[in-house]
Design brief:
Blueprint (H helix, E strand, L loop, with lengths): L4 E6 L3 H9 L6 E4 L16 E3 L5 H15 L11 E3 L2 E5 L4 H13 L9 E3 L1 H7 L10 E5 L2 E4 L1 H14 L3 E3 L4 E7 L2 E6 L2 E10 L5 H7 L8 E10 L11 E4 L5 E5 L2 E5 L4 E2 L9 H14 L9 E9 L6 E4 L6 E5 L9 H13 L5 H5 L10 H4 L1
Parallel strand pairs: 1-2, 1-12, 2-9, 5-14, 12-20
Antiparallel strand pairs: 3-8, 4-8, 5-7, 6-7, 10-11, 11-12, 13-16, 13-17, 13-18, 14-15, 15-16, 19-20
Length: 379
């Protein structure tokens, strides 16, 4: 008799890896990744930021529910810190100065539990944190000390390593090309052979709707959006300890990365699922924004890339069993906050898959998993 797994997870990004980990060997698991490497599309191209501010209510709750794990991971999960202090400097030009001060007052009045308050800065104080800002452009600023860099690759590999230690199997270069029902389980045709599983978790990111179609499910309207980034050298400056910088309405942002600056025009262009590459216009916008608000002359872009951020129409994740197709579980639509909320999202999915109670961190953060049910799009 061929082996029948309890759960097959389609997608080896941070979301699929997290649920594989949090299942903790309670079910037999195989994780299938279409690419040769895990986390190739979205996970490996993220801004790698953890912050408890500037989220929608639901994303804020998921972040709060993930905070303990990210700051104090379980013993043996990793041998390095998952978070490194970065800080976030919010800036505005003259016409947005009053708007920035209103945002500052709102954020100060709604400081997340356990987070330090934001700090209103003078232009001189802002330049002390980021000395190549242009004082003729920057007219208002505040600082959020509760912003961290995430060790993304370590987080991803720790999920995978922990899942394997509990018996999970991981197959790369294993794109699912067809699926059929055989009694009480699914038969998946993959690029690396046939896989059988009673439940299939669709954690395929930007490919979630096309993957669901293989199982006869209707698309939920999950749309990938391209986001661009460039890397720029900053001669004469050691940027390693400098904060991230965000335009107050996130028209653009930049942050230190491997001794250079990573700059993004914060674009969100709807696209078909594909191996994303940046458009020349978006690269130009990124360089333009950096030149506009700083005294730097951007004469050369060292590197450019793009990634996919996938959203449902209501910008909420989709987590739960399909009401249309037996044995199909949706785990997608985590958009631009999938990495920082992966502990909560993985635990929610694992609890729903096994029928367990929601973990204490999830319940205490006020997360209502019913909000994420695919049923909201299936009726």
């Amino acid at each position: 008799m061929p082996e029948i797994h309890d759960i097959a997870i389609i997608g080896g990004g941070i979301t699929g890896a997290s649920v594989a980990y949090f299942l903790q060997g309670q079910r037999s698991v195989v994780l299938l990744e279409q690419e040769a490497s895990l986390g190739y599309h979205s996970t490996g191209r993220s801004a790698a930021e953890f912050t408890r501010r500037f989220h929608s209510p639901a994303a804020g709750q998921l972040t709060q529910a993930s905070t303990t794990f990210m700051m104090q991971p379980q013993a043996g999960f990793t041998d390095v810190d998952l978070l490194r202090p970065r800080g976030n400097l919010l800036i505005a030009e003259a016409e947005k100065a009053d708007h920035l001060r209103k945002v500052y007052e709102q954020e100060r009045a709604n400081t997340p539990a356990g987070a330090p308050p934001v700090e209103l800065l003078t232009v001189e104080q802002a330049l002390a944190k980021m000395p190549f800002l242009d004082p003729d452009w920057v007219k208002a600023a505040f600082y959020d000390p509760d912003c961290w860099d995430i060790e993304v690759e370590n987080l991803l590999q720790s999920y995978i390593r922990g899942a394997k230690a509990k018996g999970a199997k991981v197959r790369q270069s294993a794109a699912v090309t067809a699926a059929r029902r055989d009694g009480d389980h699914w038969v998946l045709e993959t690029a690396s052979g046939e896989i059988r599983a009673r439940t299939v978790v669709n954690a395929a990111g930007g490919w979630a709707d096309p993957v669901a179609a293989l199982f006869g499910a209707k698309p939920l309207g999950l749309t990938p959006h391209r986001r661009t980034a460039i890397s720029v050298k900053v001669p004469g400056y050691d940027v390693s300890a400098m904060p991230e910088v965000n335009e107050i309405d996130e028209v653009f942002y930049f942050k230190p990365d491997a001794g250079q600056l990573m700059v993004s025009p914060a674009d969100e262009t709807p696209v078909a699922p594909h191996d994303a590459w940046p458009e020349e216009l978006d690269i130009a916008y990124a360089a333009h924004y950096l030149s506009e608000c700083t005294t730097l002359e951007v004469s050369h872009v060292a590197h450019s890339w793009a990634g996919l951020r996938t959203f449902a129409s209501d910008r909420l994740p989709v987590i739960g069993f399909s009401g249309q197709v037996p044995g199909l579980f949706w785990l997608a639509g985590v958009g631009g906050y999938g990495i920082q909320t992966s502990p909560a999202v993985g635990q929610i999915a694992a609890a729903l898959l096994t029928g367990a109670d929601m973990p204490a961190d999830v319940a205490e953060a006020g997360v209502d998993p019913a909000l994420f049910s695919p049923s909201r799009f299936e009726s």
